[in-house]
């Protein structure tokens, strides 16, 4: 059965991503890149990305959603099919990239949740 296997990332909206990235670097020692992201490599197969997005990003969906969680999944297509059958709100768009496949669902509170099936070797 297709399922979540871990947390792929946590994304925050920021009024000033550059300044906020600097704060995380300076005060918490988080090695944020210049564009406000860092990927932690826990094992060869497990990573978690922490990234800052502009306050006006449409990537999260509704403007009031300040945080979006990205869950790593083992079979995106099967999971989306099962969620649709259970009347979960599944957004129609998906994305294939060098990083893998992405899809999005909306939880009962209206939060957009990103589902990520990593590309082989990621």
From TrEMBL:
It holds the Pfam family Glyoxalase. InterPro entries: Anthracycline_SecMetBiosynth (IPR052164), Glyas_Bleomycin-R_OHBP_Dase (IPR029068), Glyas_Fos-R_dOase_dom (IPR004360), VOC_core (IPR037523). Coiled coil: none annotated. Residues 6-118 form the VOC domain. It comes from the Bacteria. This is VOC family protein. It comes from Saccharothrix mutabilis subsp. mutabilis.
